[in-house]
From TrEMBL, chain A:
GO biological process: amino acid transport
Keywords: Amino-acid transport, Cell membrane, Membrane, Transmembrane, Transmembrane helix, Transport
Protein name: Polar amino acid transport system permease protein
Lipid bilayer topology: Multi-pass membrane protein
UniProtKB/TrEMBL annotation, chain B:
Entry's family note: Belongs to the ABC transporter superfamily.
InterPro entries: AAA+_ATPase, ABC_ATPase_HisP-typ, ABC_transporter-like_ATP-bd, ABC_transporter-like_CS, MetN_ABC_transporter-like, P-loop_NTPase
GO cellular component terms listed in the entry, alphabetical order: plasma membrane
Gene Ontology MF term list: ABC-type amino acid transporter activity; ATP binding; ATP hydrolysis activity
Keywords: Amino-acid transport, ATP-binding, Cell membrane, Membrane, Nucleotide-binding, Transport
Keyword Disulfide bond listed: no
CDD domains given in the database record: ABC_HisP_GlnQ
Location within or outside the cell: Cell membrane
N-terminal signal peptide: none
Location of the ABC transporter domain: 2-236
Protein name: Polar amino acid transport system ATP-binding protein
Pfam family, one: ABC_tran
C-alpha cells in the first residue's frame, strides 16, 4: 500500500480538478438552465424554439459524444486552440461541454418547478399590478425553488459523476489520474476503491446539504 | 366608474359571455348572482384583464381596458381582486403579503408600506397575525388578509370572486363583515356571490346572469321580491 502515499499528490490533484469542474459545471449549468427555462416559458416564440432545440440536442445525444465534438471536433474547423491556447482549450471545452449538458437537464427541472406553482399565484400577483418579471422574481421563483431542490440535487450529484467523462478528452481529473497511477503501479483494486470512495464522499456531502436546506426552508417558510 | 359594452368572451368554441352590457357607478356595490356556468366569474375576471376579451368594450376610470395599447399591468393597480381560493403568497408572511404590492409595484418604502399594512390588518382584525404564514391561518383569516392585500394598493374598485364559497360556514360571517364595512366606507365593489343575505343588505344593485347574459337587474329588494323574468324566478326559488 505504501506506493499509494507516494502517488497521493497526483490523486489529490486529480480530485481537486474533479471538484473544480463539478463546481463550474453546476454553477454555469444552473445559470444556463434558468435562462433556457425562462426562454421556454417566454411569450416570444423564437425564444421558446431556441431553448427547445438546445434541450433536445443535449438530452438526445451522449455526453461523451458532446465532449468529443466540442473538444476535438470543433477545433478541426475553427482555430479554437489558437484563440484559447492549446493547453487551455481542452479545459474550456470540458467545462463548457459539461455545463451545457447539465444545463439542458436543469432547464427541465426549473421549468417543471415554475409550472408546478399554482396558477392562482400568478393571478394574485397580476391582480396587484405586478409585471410578468416581478411576478416571476418575487412570487413564482421563490416558491418554485423549494420544489426544485430535490431534483436539482440529484442533477448536481449526476454532474459530479459526469466529470469522469472528462478523462477521455485527456483532462487530468480523478479518473485520469487514477489511470496514470495504475499504469505505473498496477494497483487497480486499491486505486479504484479509493476513487469510488472519493466520489462518494463528495456526493454524500451534497445530498446532506440538500436535506439540511430542505428542512430549513420548511421551518422558515411554510 | 366601470362601463361594459356588449362584452363577448369565448373559450375556443364555447361562448361564455354573449353580450354583457352594464355599468357601475362610483361607490356603488353591485352584486352578481346566477347559476354556476352562467359566466359571472368570467365576467368579473374580464374586468381586470385576467381573461382577454373576445369582443366588446370595458372602460374603467376612463381607461379603455380592451384597447390593446393600454398597459393592463398599470390599470390593475387600481382594480383590487379577491379570489375564491384566497391565493395568498405561501412563501411570504401576512405582513409581506400585504406590503409586497406597495413596495415592489408602487415603489413605496418598507416603513411606509408596513405602517399601511398594520392599519389594514387592524381593519380586518388580524394585527396579531402579521408574522404568521398563510398556511397557519384559517380560511376566513386568509381571505381577510387577501382583502387587506388588495386594499394596500389603494384601488378605486374592488372585485370579489365568490369570496366566501371556499369557506367553512362559521367563517363566512367574518369575511362578509369586512366587506360590509368596506361598502359602508364607500368602496366601489363588484361582488360575485351566492350570499343572498349580503346582496340584500349591502347591494345597491343585483345583476342576475344566466347563459352568458344579464337576464335581469335591479335593486335587491325589488329583484328578490318580484323577479320579472322566468329564469330569475326559477333560480331564486331554488336558492331562497
Amino acid at each position: 500500500m505504501s506506493h499509494i502515499w507516494e502517488q497521493w499528490p497526483q490523486i489529490w490533484a486529480g480530485f481537486l480538478s474533479t471538484v473544480e469542474f463539478s463546481v463550474i459545471a453546476i454553477l454555469l449549468g444552473t445559470v444556463i438552465g434558468l435562462i433556457a427555462a425562462l426562454m421556454k416559458l417566454a411569450r416570444f416564440a423564437p425564444a421558446r424554439w431556441l431553448a427547445t432545440v438546445y434541450v433536445e440536442l443535449f438530452r438526445g445525444t451522449p455526453l461523451l459524444v458532446q465532449l468529443f465534438f466540442i473538444a476535438l471536433g470543433l477545433p478541426a474547423v475553427l482555430p479554437l486552440n489558437k484563440w484559447f491556447g492549446p493547453q487551455t482549450y481542452p479545459l474550456v471545452a470540458g467545462a463548457v461541454g459539461l455545463a451545457l449538458n447539465e444545463g439542458a437537464y436543469i432547464t427541465e427541472i426549473i421549468r417543471a418547478g415554475i409550472l408546478g406553482v399554482d396558477r392562482g399565484q400568478w393571478e394574485a400577483a397580476a391582480s396587484i399590478g405586478m409585471s410578468r418579471y416581478q411576478t416571476m422574481r418575487y412570487i413564482i421563483l421563490p416558491q418554485a425553488f423549494k420544489r426544485m431542490i430535490p431534483p436539482l440535487v440529484n442533477q448536481f450529484a449526476q454532474t459530479v459523476k459526469d466529470t469522469s467523462l472528462l478523462a477521455p478528452i485527456a483532462i487530468t481529473e480523478l479518473v485520469y489520474s487514477a489511470q496514470e497511477v495504475i499504469s505505473v503501479y498496477f494497483n487497480a483494486f486499491s486505486m479504484w476503491l479509493i476513487v469510488a470512495l472519493m466520489y462518494f464522499v463528495v456526493i454524500f456531502l451534497i445530498t446532506r446539504l440538500a436535506a439540511y436546506l430542505e428542512r430549513r426552508l420548511q421551518i422558515d417558510k411554510r | 366608474m366601470i362601463s361594459v359594452e356588449n362584452l363577448h368572451k369565448s373559450f375556443g368554441r364555447l361562448d361564455v359571455l354573449k353580450g354583457v352590457t352594464t355599468h357601475v357607478d362610483p361607490q356603488e356595490v353591485v352584486v352578481v348572482i346566477g347559476p354556476s356556468g352562467s359566466g359571472k366569474s368570467t365576467f368579473l375576471r374580464c374586468l381586470n384583464g385576467l381573461e382577454t376579451v373576445t369582443s366588446g368594450r370595458i372602460v374603467i376610470d376612463g381607461v379603455e381596458l380592451t384597447d390593446p395599447k393600454v398597459d393592463i399591468t398599470k390599470l390593475r393597480q387600481h382594480v383590487g381582486m379577491v379570489f375564491q381560493r384566497f391565493n395568498l403568497f405561501h412563501h411570504l408572511s401576512v405582513l409581506d403579503n400585504i406590503t409586497i404590492g406597495p413596495r415592489k409595484v408602487l415603489k413605496r418604502s418598507r416603513e411606509e408600506s408596513e405602517q399601511l399594512a398594520y392599519e389594514l390588518l387592524d381593519k380586518v382584525g388580524l394585527r396579531d397575525k402579521a408574522h404568521s404564514f398563510p398556511d397557519e391561518l384559517s380560511g376566513g383569516q386568509q381571505q381577510r388578509v387577501a382583502i387587506a392585500r388588495a386594499l394596500a394598493m389603494k384601488p378605486s374598485v374592488m372585485l370579489f370572486d365568490e369570496p366566501t364559497s371556499a369557506l367553512d360556514p362559521e367563517m363566512v360571517g367574518e369575511v362578509l363583515q369586512v366587506m360590509k364595512d368596506l361598502a359602508r366606507e364607500g368602496m366601489t365593489m363588484v361582488v360575485v356571490t351566492h350570499e343572498m343575505g349580503f346582496a340584500r343588505e349591502v347591494g345597491d344593485r343585483v345583476l342576475f346572469m344566466d347563459g352568458g347574459v344579464i337576464v335581469e337587474e335591479g335593486k335587491p329588494q325589488e329583484l328578490f321580491a318580484n323577479p320579472k323574468e322566468e329564469r330569475t324566478q326559477a333560480f331564486l326559488s331554488k336558492i331562497l
